[in-house]
Amino acid sequence: MKDAIKLKLSLLIFFLALIAFLSLAACRATIGTSDQKAIQLSDHFDGSLYFNPGLASTPSQEPKRGGSVWIWRWLFGSEWPEWPEVKDASSGPPPAVRVPKGTLRITPIGHATFLIQMDGLNILVDPIWSDRCSPVSWIGPKRHTNPGLRFEDLPPIDIVLVSHNHYDHLDLPTLKHLAKKGTPRALVTLGNLDLVRDSGIPEVEEFDWWQSAHLSSDVTVTLVPAQHFSSRTLWDRNRTLWGGFVVSGPSGKVFYPGDTGYGPHFREIASRFSPITAALLPISPFRSQALNELSPDHRRSVHMGPAEAVQAHLDLRAKVSIAAHFRVFQLGSDGFDDAVYGLAVSLMNRNLNPDAFIALSPGRSLELTTHLNDIYSSVNTETIRY
To answer: Residue 88 class from Cβ within 10 Å (0-12 exposed, 13-18 middle, 19+ buried)?
Structure first.
């Protein structure tokens, strides 16, 4: 037992030394273009750090949370339940190369990765095909469910949207594979331009909240606020921005919040972009009520559980919401099925139709179309008309 602890401590020291080395590159990535664009003080930037304006008056007052959670759990154990590995789940079929104007098809890949096909465009959000969300491939939170689509089955990707720099959302190995596959463009939050540009994607643009860009002649994307934090090392917390995206086109509006806690920003987004056709809302991690808590849980300020996600769905007045951030990487104390079960209970408690907020299996698509006479059905595709 003592030898095992010594081995783990040795590995931990090596891991921290590696993180320290990686932090030098991360610090360099926050200097230059990003700082020049962010020099203007705002309600979420104090000239040095970003912060959540509705959560705390200063960045230093925000609750601290980070990679130390899973390091402590790995080293000393915890009351977190064991998750099964679902490695035998089959991938979904290769998606269409393109969908026509007026059609919106959303395919969850797993965790927070979605393929959004709309109005002739293929958009990938927060892509991660890696086995671990970590700065190294041999340690860190591991994948329990395979990606819903094989990487080689992806259609040509026109743009990648990256919501913030956490390893489960900004996965450099996946971005490098996308660059080799010919993905031409990425849109990122302030401070992450140089990091994503290092992946080899030719055109990378960084944005602040409420800034927009054209993806085509009739499709735009807007970076919108989220309630979260950023860090890739132990020393760069909140030096880059986080956010969500609203993609608007003839087929409707898709809202993807990245990681976020529940807050008033949902109502503000609804007021600016209503009607929202589809919202891709995280339902995990959250603190299981079964655990005995000796200290307050700060996760609720930067993440949502099922109940908060359902309230966000109502605030957004979305036609349909699709669950994200569950059953792939264990990043909290909830069990493998807790988030999906909690979502069903929360919908029932609010007297909502189960079809209003669905937890699709990875690889299974949801198609929404404005053409009422367009009949489309597939064993792997659900169709909603509005």
So the answer is: exposed
DSSP 3-state of 93 = coil
208 in Cβ contact with 225 (< 8 Å): no
CA-CA distance, 362 to 261, in Å (whole number)? 23
Low-confidence ranges of the chain (pLDDT < 50): 1-4, 6-7, 10-11, 13-14, 17, 21, 23, 25-36, 38, 57-63, 65-66, 76, 290-298, 371-380, 383-386
What pLDDT sits at residue 139? 86
**pLDDT at residue number 15:** 54
| pLDDT for the residue 138 | 86
Domain ranges of the chain: 103-385
Q: Would you call 146 exposed, middle or buried from its count of C-beta atoms within 10 A (0-12, 13-18, 19+)?
A: buried
- For 103-385, the fitting CATH number among 3.60.15.10, 3.40.50.970, 3.40.50.620, 3.50.50.60 is 3.60.15.10
Burial of 268 (0-12, 13-18, 19+ CB in 10 A): middle
Tally of CB atoms within 10 A around 235: 13
pLDDT for the residue numbered 18: 52
Omega into 93 within 30° of 0, i.e. cis? no
Strand-pair partners of 125: 114, 161
